Amino acid sequence: MESKYSGYMGRVVMYDLSTQTLTDYPWSDRERELFIGGKTMASKIMLDNFTGQEKPFSEENLIVITTGPLTGTGAPSSSRFNISTLSPQTLITTSSNCGGRFGWYLKKAGFDALILKGKCPEHSWLEINNDKFVMHNADDLWGLKTGETQEALQEKHKMPNGKLMKYGQLAIGPAGENQVLYASVISDERASGRGGVGAVFGWKNLKAITVRGNKTVPVKDPEKTKQWIIKWDKYIKSHPLTGNQLPRLGTAGLVSSMQMRGMLSSKNYNYGKYEHFDKVNGETLAEDFNIVNKGCLTCPMKCARTVEVNGKPVKGPELETLGLLGGGILNPNLADILKWNYEIDELGMDTISASSTLAYAMEANEKGLWKNGLEFGKTDNISQIWDDVAHRRGIGAELADGSKRLSEKYGGKEFAIHSKGMELAAYEPRRAVGQGLGYAVSNRGGCHLNGGYLVIVEGLGLYTNPLTHHAKADFTMLFQNLMETISASGQCLFTSYAFFPGFLITRPNGVITTIANKAIPFIGGVLRLINRVSPALALHLPVFHHTKIFSYALGMPMTFGKYIRTGERSYNVERLVNSKFGVNASWDTLPKRLTDTPQDPNNPKTKVPLETLKKTYYKARGWDQNGLPTKHTLRKLGLGEYC
Amino acid sequence: MINVELFGLFRLDTKIKGFELDPSAEGVSTVKDIYPILLKKAKEVNPATKICAKDIDGCIIIINGVQSKKSAHVNDGDKIQLMSPVCGG
Amino acid sequence: MSEEVKKDQEPQTEAPKKKVAAKKEEAPAEKPAAKPAAPKKPKDKPYIDMPTCVGCSVCIEACPMDCIQLSEPKFHGDIRTYAYLSDEKKCIGCGMCEKACPIDVITMCQPGEIPDKYTKGETSMCQDLFKVYCRVFQAVMKVGNYFMGYRMPDYIQGAGCIKQLPGIIKSKGLTKVLVVTDGGLLKLGVPDGLFEAMKEVGLEYEVFSNIIHNPTSDNVEEGYKLFRETGCQGLIAFGGGAPMDCAKAIAAKNAHPNKTVAQMQGLLKVHKKICPFWAVPTTSGTGSETTVAAVITDSATHHKASINDPSILPKYAVLDPELTIGLPPYVTAQTGMDALCHAVESYTNWTYCTALEKDLSKKAVRLIYDNLLTAYEDGKNFEARQNMQIAAFYAGRSFTRGCVGYVHAVGHTLGGLYGIAHGQAMSVILPHVMAQYGPAVYDKLADLADVCGMTGVTNEEKAKKFIAWIREMNEKMNIPKGFQQIKDEDIPQMITWAKAEANPLYPVPVIWGDDDFRRLIHTLQTAE
User: Fold this and answer.
1) What's the pLDDT score for residue A635?
2) Cβ of A300 and C65 within 8 Å?
3) What is this model's ipTM?
4) What CA–CA distance (Å, rounded) separates A511 from A519?
5) Which among C57, C79, C80 has CB closest to A297?
6) Which of C55, C99, C102 lies closest to A226 in CB terms?
7) Domain count, chain B
8) Is residue B88 part of a domain?
């Protein structure tokens, strides 16, 4: 349905892969106001279409690819899109965000979202050109790695004069084709990495999608939008985190800091430090390996690394991969990590789940639970392992199912480091208990970002007491809410880091910073109140530019309070749809290693007091003891129909 | 000897990974006493450097694994790490 | 032919040479001559405004020909990159980039032009307030100018009139003078006629020639020391702008021995009568013989700044065209364009000029239009040389009151940082600044175009023709289009210096902010 708001193309479509038919999916302005777009929109669509009986590998499972209304307006870091589906890894819904250009071009084709159902009768790739959908046979692409697939697609998108068309693309690799439970979808050099979305593509015989179009994203007030973009861009570029650390070190810059805080998980989360961290940290990457930093379309931060592997410039690793394939498996060789990161991307898998599953397997082998020949520190066979996993060959066939299923089969559940079936992301939560809560309650599983990313105040950016549970639940909720709306609007979560005034970062020893850090554990009550009365916060914060862009670019009134409330609604919609698949408090767990075994044997506080944190968190969220939204909460959020 | 290590952007800006110093020979009793030595080394590595004391103040100071201040005392055998605040995801 | 000393009058020129088109050979009567086809206008290309581009890459994505790229990062993690047209030949002028840009920093236009929207000067609340302040300052200065007593120097004019100078000096009661000149002129023997004449009348003299293109504060201190220690009573500045400015600064130093050069730089910091001072220009020229400015580079900081004070305006000038006959072509070109720059900047500036200065600017422009190329191609052409000398004189007098502008402010920074000769800097920068002023100068440039007989329907057209003529002159005289040696790391300093010099004193047509200076400097770096 056409929208009164700008930014939206006004069309959501459902494409049946079985019958190759296209229908319009109704989406109203009221829904745009409540759910914005992106992952939230996808959750709402899944909430309205899933009964809870669906299986991930089924025709009834939907692949929901959504964009945000800011994509195409030129707002900073606004080219992100989302793929949501029922995850084969967790058996609940998952959302997987990506910085590739697919979403940008989906909007140029005239669509805010694309919903896929059914199953292609043969190996296929889908070509979308404005509103023309053409399914092609993909036998010539099947089996190709993601890079090879994208190169082959280029040949299919050349004009008669030899020039390449401009289009966006999605592709899976052999891992998706073979339904590795954590297979990813690649778009250009970026990945929709987590949750096994690539496996669903593979089961549905969908190898790739390309999309192009010639439509323009409407902007409500071009002049005000332009001035705001210029101002915001300047702010991001001058901020110490977004304008200095992220471009120059990337997320890889966290390794040393995590080491210092005891948050760098090593040997499968046995420890929080790695003695050779300096060989695999962001500084070494920057000094010895980084060629240039790159950015997603419209992004001023340009945080991605480019490194050389086999003489070719390729995407470099993010922090999680460095941590998990470095200290995580006791590997001190950075060049290996760069190579493996590339190989895993080429095969089309989630680097986090792949690495963490490998680490589990190494520990299971070490403990005699599973004889698989994999050992910590033994790295000469790892490239072959990845290939075996992607092709479900030998032990690869088992590793392809992830650490949860392996631990159910072989034992060692206490050191299968996952939550809800999705592996955790290198931050050791026993030294950042708020992050531990986040991992456990994250809607899609062990996700650090969906979990609120509390490490940023627990030692990496600011350094409040990482072991206390006070205020952590309320902070988690606040950060989660903000980040939900950022994602829903099509922007990158990293734009939120400039929320912390620069002087708090550049003056870590300053009086105000010291006071702020000491005060954080005591302001839980204040945060609870903010969360509760958020719509009353009808203001704009100078450090949070995200609200004004809504009125300028979209013509949709937005305030800081409303932004938080929208995020809260988003989080609850995801919880609701997952509850159809059985999610409740018993799913919000962490492995016993993290909740029962102190990281420091001499300090009993160095473990995650999860039950205490969960209790407070559910209260803050307005959920019952079973971890489900109460009727009051649902009505408050405009979700009364789901009571 | 005191072992001083640099991390984060501060390491990239100074181009110094770390160094050792003899506290008694260099007259170092607090972290702040290390500042001129560090700035001098940074100047030796890159004469055009604009690094100054303010940049060292911008680092998190960790002595033997515990966060500290520049007024903290340091002793022979201590390990001092200077780290710029970071974020990621 | 020499003449009596003229007081405060305009020098006489040779009859202006009318440009007469060569007669075409008459075509055979039966066939009327075919009209030459109007030159095809080149395709519009994207102008990408570098200072305001945020480097979002949307235009790169939109371009179907892949002819836009992001600039090279200057270091690992550099995020201040910007889009630029990397392959002009590949560009088909489709305008997709302009349509795609979310912040309107791309506009299709004719190559080399700057679209009007980027010529209005930086706008923000602070900048707008600053502009008001500048205009108020300049309005007050305009009133103050009426009390300044600007005048033409007393002068003698004509071939060989330099030989009269020693007698005139002696008649004023002086027995010893310091001749400030440059080593190059000495080697060539250009001042020999003056020296012989001084010996003939028994006028003692010392020579100070340790001056480079852009005189430094050290040069001034050294020259002053010689002046004082040898008991000189007056100064003869013999040469181009460098010896002129150096001599003026020596005279200022002599009036204030305890002040440093830096302390006298700026506005009205001399305000004391100087010793007798004769200016003998050998280039055409800086017009320094008529100006109240002396531009000196600080030896320590390399900052080039001007001593501006009516006290240092030379009392006397000697306009002997024979002294310019031997000027090499490149010096003729650069100094000639320097004179043009004075005339144009003074004319296009706001409010300071009276009808006299405007008239002098127009006359100067016309003389340069008619004579510079001839003087460049045939240095021995006496009329061309004389007329260029007069043009420089007029232009100098014009800008003494009318002031200069951003061409000078930015040009001085290049002199300070890279030792680029003043004349060359002016020649290169002038057309770019005029283009970047946009509509603000159309009317005035159209006046100058009219003076030169250029035709056009609108003022915009005439103005652009005038700017095109400046570019054409540069090309014909082998003056480069830009300065690729400008280093990015020097740009902040250049902007600071240029702003300090120009704002609020220079009544420029458009008051610029940092982004505007960056725009100009980027143009200079990338012009080919």
Assistant:
1) 95
2) no
3) 0.93
4) 12
5) C57
6) C102
7) 1
8) no
Look at A166 and C61 and tell me if their CB atoms are within 8 Å: yes
Q: What is the pLDDT of residues A365-413, one digit of tens each?
A: 999 999 999 999 999 999 999 999 999 999 999 999 999 999 999 999 9
Query: Which pLDDT tens digit goes with each residue over A159-175?
Result: 998 889 999 999 999 99
Strands of the sheet containing C204-208, edge to edge, are C154-157, C316-319, C277-281, C234-239, C176-180, C204-208
- Cβ-based interface (< 8 Å): residues of A facing C: 73-76, 101, 104, 163, 166, 216, 219, 222, 225-226, 229-230, 233, 237, 243-244, 247-249, 286, 290, 292-293, 295, 297-302
Range of the domain at B58: 2-83
C453 Cβ contact partners less than 8 Å away, ≥ 6 residues apart = C19
Question: Which pLDDT does position C6 carry in this prediction?
Answer: 61
Closest to B81 measured CA to CA, from B31, B39, B36, B33:
B31
**CA end-to-end span of chain B:** 37
Residues C22-80: tens digit of each pLDDT: 444 444 455 556 656 666 778 899 999 999 999 999 999 999 999 999 999 888 899 99
Say if the Cβ atoms of C58 and A290 lie within 8 Å. no
Cα-Cα-Cα-Cα dihedral sign, residues B18, B23, B27, B33 = positive
Tokens read off for A356? 């963490």
List the single residue in A256, A287, A509 with the smallest CB-CB distance to B8.
A256
Neighbours of chain A (3+ CB pairs under 8 A): B, C
Q: How many domains does chain A divide into?
A: 3
pLDDT in tens, C301-322: 888 788 988 889 888 899 998 9
- Closest partner residue to C54 (CB to CB) among A163, A233, A286 is A233
Nearest residue to A312 (alpha-carbon basis) of A295, A326, A291: A291
CA C256 to chain centre: 29
* Architecture of the domain made up of C124-147+329-528: Up-down Bundle (1.20)
* A15-41 mean pLDDT: 97
According to the CATH classification, is domain C45-111 in 3.10.20.590? no
- Architecture of the CATH domain C152-324: 3-Layer(aba) Sandwich (3.40)
Mutate one of C76, C82, C97, C125 to test the A interface: name it (highest A CB count within 10 A): C76
Interchain proximity B57–A460, CB inside 8 Å: no
Instruction: Report whether pLDDT(A444) > 80.
Output: yes
A53/A201 same-domain check: yes
- Residue A249 in any domain: the answer is no
For residues A299 and A318, what is the distance between their CA atoms, to the nearest angstrom? 17
* Last residue in a domain, options A404, A423, A442: A423
Q: Which structural domain range is residue A372 located in?
A: 260-423
Question: Which residues of B are less than 8 Å from A260 in CB distance?
Answer: 7, 60, 62, 65, 81, 83
Of A212, A245, A274, the residue that ends a domain is: A212
Residue range C124-162, pLDDT digits in tens: 889 999 999 999 999 999 998 888 777 778 888 888 999
CA atoms in the 13 A half-sphere facing the CB of C322: 15
- Interface contact A249-C79, CB threshold 8 A: no
Going by C-beta distance under 8 Å and a sequence separation of 6 or more, which residues neighbour residue A99? Answer: A79, A80, A187, A190, A296, A297, A299, A492
Note whether residue B89 is domain-resident. Answer: no
**B67 contact residues in A (CB cutoff 8 A):** 463
